[in-house]
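FORM 12-B: Structure-to-Sequence Request
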């Protein structure tokens, strides 16, 4: 089962596991992090905004237009970086074992 290395907003580090095929947002939400996943994965709230470690960006599928638009919209209220992604749009797989990320500031 893929492991995810998470740094929370307060700097606390966690390691959680996420079954392949599950959305990263669900694993973070259910794994004791501060991710809420308010919209349930519909890519419409930005509450699962994370900064993916640069070493992992190329291993992820490219964000779709709706994800890019949501990230742009939340940029009006919180910091957006080139590594910004919405965890609800990342499907976990064995290839993502060891994924490292930081949870962004809450909206």
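FORM 12-B RESPONSE
SEQUENCE OUT:
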């Amino acid at each position: 089962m893929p492991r995810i290395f998470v740094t929370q907003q307060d700097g606390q580090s966690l390691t959680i596991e996420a079954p392949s095929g599950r959305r990263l947002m669900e694993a973070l939400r259910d794994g004791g992090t501060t991710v809420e996943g308010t919209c349930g994965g519909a890519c419409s709230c930005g509450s699962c905004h994370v900064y993916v470690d640069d070493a992992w960006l190329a291993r992820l599928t490219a964000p779709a237009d709706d994800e890019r638009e949501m990230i742009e919209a939340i940029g009006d209220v919180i910091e957006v970086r080139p590594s910004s992604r919405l965890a609800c749009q990342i499907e976990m797989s064995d290839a993502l074992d060891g994924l490292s990320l930081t949870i962004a500031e809450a909206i």
